[in-house]
Specification:
heterodimer; A: 54 residues; mainly alpha; 44% helix; B: 5-stranded mixed beta sheet; two-stranded parallel ribbon; globular
Chain lengths: 54, 278
């Protein structure tokens, strides 16, 4: 990640190691784990608003 | 049981191996996480998939315009393009800024890349990139909407990168610009492919049962065997590591804090802190 090269405090958040279709033509919406994704989205949006409020 | 019954049982397992859905009322009561617009988030995924690929200069430009349009509709955001040159071509990152009074010289950054990986385009003629990384884009757009609707103390920038899958060109150009602007970086959180919790086995069964060719099935089997298989040992999933927070050892404390917060969401979060990251 480009931020690390400059020493900025940077983290990545991912579940890519779970997806066998990464970087393929079948990384499509019908293969997504929707329930999981919506939970993650809610948690990450919460994280964003919390950090910005601090 | 005959083979047909076994197939149905395996299909059922494949479809139900996911975590409990977020609409469980107990979760709503116990968790301090905000209600997001699921409709808006899923719409973003559909819009991003509909480009077919987000690899070429033309497509990436079209997506940049789309993101700019979406962000401009949110009151309270300062939206701009960040241009950079790559050979003869000019590419664009999209930046939405929310001013904050606390520590105005600093910036808290949330980012996600909007391009998709060229391999899909080469091998299959399509690079829909829904998990990688329409999911990150959808989270960031929803975060933008929520952040703009409430008081924010710290200056925040939401950055949508181009060309991540082609040498991190977009983020490199942005980091260079950031250094030139002399901003103190409070922290960076990069969201990249967060929509998949099902282990390869369930995916394999799905494909074997009619959603993929034999060739695709073999490809997936190879991919699955190359991956760490702790989720296989644990049965159908590894409950501790569906989502990974990764970072460098120098920022272990930052990673710890974020990991602790996300653990409250009961998603299954693991840490990956080491020099090999990135």
């Amino acid at each position: 990640m480009s931020f690390w090269e400059k020493g900025y405090p940077a983290l990545f958040i991912t579940s890519f190691h779970k997806n066998p279709r990464m970087h393929t033509a079948s990384d499509t919406l019908d293969r997504l784990d929707r329930a999981f994704f919506l939970r993650v989205a809610r948690a990450l949006v919460g994280l964003m608003t919390d950090l910005a409020r601090e | 049981m005959n083979i047909g019954t076994w197939v149905l049982v395996l299909l059922w397992i494949g479809c139900h191996a996911g975590p409990a859905v977020a609409s469980d009322p107990r979760e709503r009561r116990e968790r301090p996480f905000p209600a997001i617009s699921e409709e808006s988030v899923l719409q973003t995924l559909m819009d991003m998939e509909a480009w077919g690929n987000r690899v070429t200069w033309e497509k990436q430009n079209a997506v940049a315009d789309y993101l700019h349009r979406r962000l401009r509709r949110v009151p309270g955001l300062e939206v701009r393009f960040h241009h950079y040159q790559d050979g003869d071509l000019t590419y664009r990152n999209v930046v939405a800024r929310i001013p904050g009074k606390k520590d105005p010289g600093s910036v808290l950054i949330f980012c996600a890349h909007y391009d998709s990986h060229p391999d899909g385009l080469t091998a299959g003629g399509r690079a829909p990139g829904v998990d990688d990384n329409a999911t990150g884009v959808a989270v960031l757009l929803e975060g933008a909407r929520m952040l703009a609707a409430q008081p924010v103390n710290r200056p925040v920038e939401l950055v949508f990168f181009s060309n991540e899958e082609q040498g991190h060109k977009g983020s490199k150009a942005y980091v260079k610009d950031l250094a030139a602007r002399g901003r103190r970086v409070q922290g960076v959180i990069n969201i990249d492919a967060v929509g998949y919790a099902q282990p390869p086995l369930a995916a394999l069964w799905r494909d074997a049962l009619g959603w993929g060719s034999l060739e695709k099935w073999q490809h997936l089997a190879r991919q699955a065997l190359k991956k760490p298989v702790n989720y296989v040992k644990a049965g159908f999933r590894n409950p501790d590591g569906m989502l990974v927070v990764g970072g460098r050892p120098a920022h272990a404390a930052f990673a710890e804090g974020i990991h602790a917060r996300l653990k409250k969401a009961d998603i299954g979060v693991a840490k990956d802190i080491g020099p090999q990251c990135g």
